[in-house]
Hints:
Blueprint: H1 5-32, E1 36-37, E2 42-43, H2 54-71, H3 78-105, H4 120-129, H5 136-151, H6 156-159, H7 172-182, H8 196-203, H9 207-216, H10 223-229, H11 236-254, H12 261-264, E3 282-283, E4 290-292, H13 299-322, E5 327-328, H14 340-343, H15 347-362, E6 363-367, H16 370-390, E7 405-408, H17 416-423, H18 428-440, H19 444-447, H20 453-466, H21 474-497, H22 503-523, E8 526-531, H23 543-549, H24 557-568, E9 569-580, H25 590-600, E10 601-610, E11 620-627, E12 635-639, H26 646-658, E13 666-669, H27 688-695, H28 700-703, E14 705-708, H29 716-719, E15 720-722, H30 740-750, E16 756-759, E17 774-777, H31 779-791, E18 810-813, E19 822-825, E20 829-830, E21 837-840, H32 845-853, H33 855-862, H34 875-879, H35 888-910, H36 941-950, H37 955-961, H38 963-969, H39 999-1011, H40 1018-1021, E22 1057-1060, H41 1068-1078, H42 1087-1093, H43 1095-1102, E23 1104-1105, E24 1108-1109, E25 1113-1117, E26 1124-1128, H44 1136-1162, H45 1168-1194, H46 1206-1210, H47 1220-1235, H48 1242-1247, H49 1249-1256, H50 1260-1265
Parallel strand pairs: 3-5, 4-6, 4-8, 6-7, 8-9, 10-12, 16-20
Antiparallel strand pairs: 1-2, 9-11, 10-11, 12-13, 14-21, 15-17, 16-17, 18-19, 22-26, 23-24, 25-26
Helix pairs in contact: 1-3, 1-7, 1-8, 2-3, 2-22, 3-16, 11-13, 13-15, 13-16, 15-16, 18-20, 20-21, 21-22, 24-25, 32-35, 39-41, 44-45
Amino acid sequence: MAFDQTTRNRLQRFVNDARRVLEEEFTRQLQNDYGMDPNAGSVAELASLRHINDAQRETARILRDTLAHYTASGDMNATQGLGRIVREQAFTVLNRLAALRMAEARGLLVESVGNGFQAKGFQLYARLAGTGLGETGDAYRVYLFSVFDELAQDLPGLFDRYSPQGRLFPREAALLQVLNLINDADIAPLWSEDETIGWIYQYFNSKEERKAMRDASQAPRNSRELAVRNQFFTPRYVVEFLVDNTLGRLWFNATGGATGLRDRCQYLLVKPDETPQAATKLRDPRTLKLLDPACGSMHFGLYAFDLFAEIYREAWVWEQQHGPGSLDVSTQPQAALKALSQTYEDEAAFLRDVPRLIIEHNIYGVDIDPRAAQIASLALWLRAQRAWHDAGVKAKNRPLIGRGHVVAAIAPPAERELRQQFVANLDQRDAELFEKTLQLLKGLPELGVLLQAEKDLPRLTREIYVGKGTGLFAEQEQETWRQAETRLREALLDFSHAAKSTYQARLFAQDALDGLRLIDLARERFDVLVMNPPFGEPARSTKSYLEETLPRSKGNILTQFIERAAQLVRLGGRVGAILSRTCFYLQSFSAFRKSVLAEDLALETFVDLGQGVLDAMVETAAVTWERSHGNADEAIFFRELNRIDKNSGLLESIHLLKSGRDGDNFFRRRVEKFSVFDDMPYVYWINDSIARKIAGHPAVDPLACSIRVGLQTGDDFRFLRLWWEVDSYRIIVPSEKSDVDKLQNECLQSSKGRKWAWYSKTEAASPVLSSIHACVNWLRDGEEIKAFHVGKGDSPSKYVRSENFYFMPALSYMLRSSRLVPYLVPAAVIPTAGRSQVYPSHNNEMWLAALLSSNVATAVARFRGEAFWQPKFQNSMVSAIPYVQPESNDLDEASRIISNVRERMAETFKRDETEILFTFPSLKGMGDTRQPFSRDSLIGATFDERIAHLYGLTSDEFRALQRDHNEALARPSGAEEADEDDGEQSEESVGNGDSMVDESSSNQSWAVGVAFGRFDWRLATGERTAPAEPAPFDPLPAKSPGMVPDGATPFHTLAGILVDDPGHPHDLARLVEEVLSRVEVPVPEDVRRWLQRDFFAFHLQRYSKSRRKAPIYWPLSTTSGSYTLWVYYPSLTSQTLYTAINDFVEPKLKQVGADVTALRNKGSARTRDDEKQFEALQAFELELIELRDTLLKLAPTYKPNHDDGVQISAAPLWPLFRHKPWQKVLKDTWAKLEKGDYDWAHLAMNYWPERVREKCKTDKSLAIAHGLESLYIEPEAAPKKTRGRKKGE
Length: 1289
């Protein structure tokens, strides 16, 4: 059955539930029975456990030895060690039960887990055993243990009940829960599928756990994090494609195409009538070696098993035809392999042994997660059992399978005392070799096969057994090592089995033996390597080692695995991998492409798969190479990026290829042709002619512009404000507009007195004109920010970058989008480091804007994108766009088009009251004025064609060039969304319904602003004309055109406070109705209800941008919300709360008090309605008193400063806000203020002056923030190191 998302979800729920039950059970057992608390990390003395029997005491001792072994290196504390024990015990039990359930489904085992206590196998066992085994639950446990013991002969790593991972077993209640889960009807069909065990392995660690790890650290902090972050199961079709075109291709070539694999392997790329030159001597299949270096659940090995079985059958036939000795065993002379016909009496005996041969000779696997090694061994064993079952081989006639070659890359033993005990009985040189080998294996858990132990062995062997400076022949070195290793293995086995040996000593010896197994594996050379390697940063502890040993692929563990694969595979062998496609496109991987991929590997097939393949937000490609030093023939590229059913599409293209027909979704390209571009991106979808024409033009940077990143504040909450949070007269707005040098100088001079400069950080971009709504603290040329970075130990230039470009007009572009979307950045804006800015050469701004908006620019920028659907447009992608010189009429047309687009986009911002271009909203049913743009072309198809012709492209070539972007636009509905973490909308959301707001709420919100004296209603009535449209690069104003000009009469005179109080002269609801009537807009019937229930949530959402929440209308309410004062933030002063008390609350209290007295004086004459009103008024009076008292308590010390911003200024008032989400934000902010996290704020100085002044002595940035530089004490400079004089001087 297909493992679709629904099926996987069911299996994931099962695994999560089973893990929870087992971990809770084993935590309780450790706490209650064994004196070990995983939560506290405490371990009781063994002697204190007097409530347990002898068997439990032995388990308690073993658990303590296991904990001591886990924590011996010092990398893990007791809490972590006990957590590991719980996790591993739970995983082992789940694996064992799942293994039995899968064996039952395949007919390999009598029903033992299915149906739980009613299982047929157990019922038979119970009848034979009678009542001697106790209650049903006890008898069932004994039965399962007997099954485990039987299976442990073949799979000791999983079923050995005395292994450190298998000491605990759930008690009856928990076991029944797990059995119910495992026998759920929803997952019953899955137990017969090979893939099930792999998904169990992946889902044992949840997505939430992986996310928490990534949130805690960008790079994995240890081997477990590296393993958990990269547990992504490979779909079956990808496995088959990679194995068919590596192992299958190798055998196909060796046999000259005379193999059944030609038809059996549906993904094997075979051209019509392809007949390669057959080998003169066919390889003995026992010498073929396939490695999966990150094997997980061994999915590649399971499918390779089937191919190996066919290869063995064909090898037998070959030898029968060509005679004994006709199979080549020269790659393994030390194995002394006899001819197949001399080893087996007949073909039946041979075929019966093939499953064992495959596991013992052909399939190798390594994983840094011991659980993966456990499950991989199980998967191969189950596959062998199924092969025998299908062939009718009875269990008693099945060969016993040896250990195989699945190795866990675990840490070498760290117990110093045990190491000393062990080496004391060794020859001195063997002891030295052992010590140095353990040191060599130190990084093994994080490195796995990336640890190049085989390269250091010859040196160690020479130094220890022969002496430094003495050379040995390679054969002698290998023989010396083999002999020494044999002695060490024997000594370790003797050590672990010695009479006085502790359980911890057994673990010590076992880990050392596993290390030797890994060294043996690294010394092998493989014919095939297939993998789904990890990606991202390597573990921190291994970074320097990997950069030194794999220098051509440094920076990403994915590329390091590929470089290592080229070392592990023999010439002529094959490498296949599913991996992140980014390494074929990003400029940061160009050196890797031009060295490892070009020099060591010859590309054969490339399937560009994109998203939706792995259970992770990563775009993938399935790739196969031949291990070769020469140039490859044409490679075949398949394009499946925008298909949901990628498997069907791939098979369709393969069918066309095999039949000799052309197809739209596969291409033949020579990789060396990609080097027409310096960074060699794999742009297979364009032909050589297009590539040469594009590459023939110089890049825009530095010819036509400079592309730079700007300022990174290091603490946006501290240094950024939304423009409406600060006083407008404090924003830098130069009067100069045309002379850039004068404008820059004026801005710098203004920064001596004005604190805030416009800052280009934005959360959503749109073509030509985008929202700019943030200001940055740039007082005295950014003095405080620079001091902040110096205080962190950094150079300011590391974060305050490209400073000589500040305040210059520029272009920027949407960070993450399907296409390049440039927009104009006005003068007097400081650039952000979050996205690059393009500074055009003088007088070519409009042409450059048009050029970068063209489809050619998008297509070329996408050559180097890290994602297909919505790449993140980095500096390097834009700077590589080719520049083409315009003709005079092109300049005029470019200016006309860009101006037209800007004018259309401006209509959006003129209707949004949070934008600096705002005039008034869409009144009188005008509807949404947003001007959506065409994603197909920003500048129009005609001008796009014109620009393409300037590059020398024909119409057909231009169409071909646009294919990549056009397919990204045609995103299928089932495609998964990218995991956005940029805090920015994608292009697809800009210009669509996402940004529409409720028109009625928008109009009423504007009317609130008019009532407060913020907005000018006369623009809507035509009594005042809006200011003239600014030129595209003119500096932004400090106030929007829609605001009341300085000195003009507002709609209503007030002192910064309005109230929800019918009949009051400052009643907000009445004023909103008056405003709407004045501009002839229909007045809603429920304005007061809207203000009470809906307005603040709407307002908070609208006035939150770029991760800042900054509402300017503050509802301060009584507990029930029956009385609300609306405070206008821009008018906020230290007297505002007193005004609220004296002008609003006290008069209202007096009025309510009089009403209460009047009703009280009625006495018995009060009617029922009077009584209700009397009770309500009394409650209201108490609430008003509480509000007054709270305001009186706050008022004397409340001295707000607009430079602190809305959130800090509102924090002391948090008890008076009734909107729960906003109240929580403010309460948390107040707690951080009290704690001292925001001591840069003026409010902090106001409340805790002594604490802040003390900090100013050691923190220069704080001293600058509070104007107390005189308090700062410059630390003494560290003394310079001086070189000592040489003797005799």
